[in-house]
Amino acid sequence: MDPQALDRDALTLSDLRKTVGREMWVSRWFTVDQALIDRHAESSGDRQFIHVDPVRAKAESPFGGTIAHGFLTLSLLPAMSNDALPPRKGVRMTLDYGFDRVRFLAPVRCNSRVRGRFSLVHLDDQTPSELTLTWSVTVEIEGGLKPVLAATWITRQYLEREA
After folding, report:
1. Residue 126: phi, psi to the nearest 5?
2. Which tens digits make up the pLDDT trace of 48-103?
3. What's the rounded Cα separation, in Å, for the pair 20 and 7?
4. CB 131 within 8 A of CB 16
5. Which PANTHER family has this protein been placed in (predicted)?
6. What is the rounded average pLDDT of the residues 1-25?
7. Domain 8-32+68-159 is found in CATH 3.10.129.10
């Protein structure tokens, strides 16, 4: 199934089931700049110099400057999925259920651009109004030879109740 052929306003559950096992969606590029890294450092309390001190990171780290926190890269997944995945009518809300696996595979240097690739690997009907979706997610860096993050992400969709 070609993702471009899907109506982004009316993706049905049947259409979604047809995508299981296929890489279907890729987000736009997101820039990871120092301001974003600094905001994450502030909110997470992780102010290690490799993230927040460009001068020291250039002099003392093997990265040539600051790098994003792995958890910052992970925290971009909702924005990437909102950008890449088509909405579905009849979904009341979607919640994060958790991760079965997360790996930080390479550093994200300051001012790099990253994007997410999403494949639905499993869809489970928990109840008539609740679905559990398991996603394989890869975050790649522009010009990089390997992904910076690989994860198995589990979400829950709660469907509108029929009157």
Report:
1. -70, -50
2. 999 999 999 999 999 999 999 999 999 999 999 999 988 877 888 999 999 999 99
3. 17
4. no
5. MAOC-LIKE DEHYDRATASE DOMAIN-CONTAINING PROTEIN (PTHR42993:SF1)
6. 68
7. yes
pTM of the entire structure? 0.87
Q: Which of 16, 87, 80, 91 is nearest to 1 (CA)?
A: 16
The token pair that represents 11 in the structure block: 């993706």
Q: Both tokens of residue 157?
A: 């969709």
Structure tokens at 3: 């993702």
Residue labelled with tokens 């930080």: 104
